[in-house]
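Hey Z.,

So I finally got round to the fructose -6-phosphate thing we talked about over coffee. Here's the setup:
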Amino acid sequence: MEVVIRDTAEAAAELTAAVIAREIKATPHLVLGLATGRTMESVYRILVRKHRDDALDFAEVTTFNLDEYVGIPGDHPCSYRYYMNQHLFSHVNIDLARTFLPNGMAKDIATECRQYESRIKNRGGINLQLLGIGRSGHIGFNEPLSALRSRTREKALTPKTIEQNAPMFGGSEQMPRWAITMGVGTILDSHRCILLATGEEKAEIIAKAVEGPITSMISATALQLHPHCTVVIDEAAATRLEQLDYYRWVFANERDWDDFR
Ligand code: F6R
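And the result:
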């Protein structure tokens, strides 16, 4: 794992989008894992700008989103399909037939989950997985006690997640109680992953995810097992980390980051 600290949330999103853009340029048929949520909105805004101003080409890119709510259709304004269309897909030259999200309206959810895993596998796995982190420490909707080897499945959302996302639904009463999510094991199978977290409200959980012991109570700690995981944070989200000087030293010295400093 490596930790990259940027001054502001915008600079952290810029760096995350720059990593994604570099991967797409290097591998035009990239299989890209996507996340939703407030933190990702700036990343998608920057990717849209790169498409418009720098001709970043999504024509051959395939995407797999981490998760989707159960029981709301893709045209519901709170569905993650709608979010992706609004923030990214409608503004770039991606082929919608190559954009995958779990179908939260599927009659047989267990079959839908198995098929989602097969679709990822049939495309050779996820090259780069984008991740956010919830205040409960979830990645995707892998809530506390999610098995570290779990695969795509249906999960009940925790009260903390319901509280975090309820404003989007106009209150917790309207919020779905279930979601389909890639498992922790599915995420760990990605070739590379990049977790973006910004703001003071993420400082405590970031410290636990990066420096705490690996535990299924905080699924993001499993990323310590990932062979190539980058955690990108702003100064506000970095305040509870103990080894800041070390992370800054690694970033200043690793050749991989030569183009980004
Ligand atoms: C959603 C997802 C979640 C979010 C996390 C952070 O697809 O994967 O794990 O990334 O809940 O959400 P925000 O950015 O809204 O704080």
